[in-house]
Amino acid sequence: MIGHLNLILRLAIWFLLTANLSVANIIIGISVALLLPGRPKTPEALQDWLRALWETLVAIPQAYKEAFEMILRPHNYEEVTMERVKPGRTPGLIFLDIFLITFTPTTIVLKYHENGWYEVHWVRRRRKA
Fold first, then answer.
1. d(CA 101, CA 99)
2. Mean per-residue pLDDT for 73-80?
3. Exposed e or buried b for every residue in 94-117, given b needs 16+ CB within 10 A?
4. Which regions span the lipid bilayer (predicted)?
5. pLDDT value at residue 127
6. Over the stretch 1-21, which tens digit does the pLDDT of each residue have?
7. Which candidate, 66, 80, 82, 92, places its Cα nearest to that of 116?
8. pLDDT of 41 over the 60 cut
9. Pick from 127, 80, 70, 67: which is nearest to 108 by CA?
10. What is the value of pTM for the model shown?
């Protein structure tokens, strides 16, 4: 069985994809969320999910800021870096981390490595020294 927070994440993604809150769509969404295969239940700290939610809310103004910076001062340099996954992350939290990195216009996750690394592509204004 899947954890409550993973169920909520699956339903949130379903409602964002369908943009429909009718009774029939809610029933279909719950059915799909329950039928999707899941990993064995892992302990998840509510604190980790709340921190991820806070980081999502902070990322929205940051994304606008970066977009305006790219319009006003072009970013001409590209760089690919490897970033470590935070320890003890469940698949749902890893998905949210990838979403947050990709949400901002100057970064995108190219690949998630199973050994605990994200391959991140950056667009920067200047080369890092």
1. 6
2. 89
3. ebbbbebbebbbbbebeeeeeeee
4. 12-36, 92-112
5. 67
6. 457 777 888 888 888 888 888
7. 82
8. no
9. 80
10. 0.65
Residue with tokens 């760089």: 79
Burial category of 55 from C-beta neighbours within 10 Å (exposed 0-12, middle 13-18, buried 19 and up): middle
- Is residue 112 within 8 Å of 94, Cβ to Cβ? yes
CA distance 119 to 111: 5
Q: How far apart are CA 57 and CA 73, in angstroms?
A: 25
Nearest to 83 by CA among 61, 62, 98: 98
Lowest-confidence region among 10-14, 44-48, 113-117: 44-48
Q: Look at 83 and 89; give whichever has higher pLDDT.
A: 83
CB 105 within 8 A of CB 67: yes
Q: Between the CA of residue 48 and those of 33, 45, 64, 111, 120, what are the distances in Å?
A: 21, 5, 25, 23, 22
**Euclidean distance between CA atoms 120 and 102, whole angstroms:** 9
Mean pLDDT, range 52-66, rounded to an integer: 88
The structure tokens listed for 105 are: 């216009």
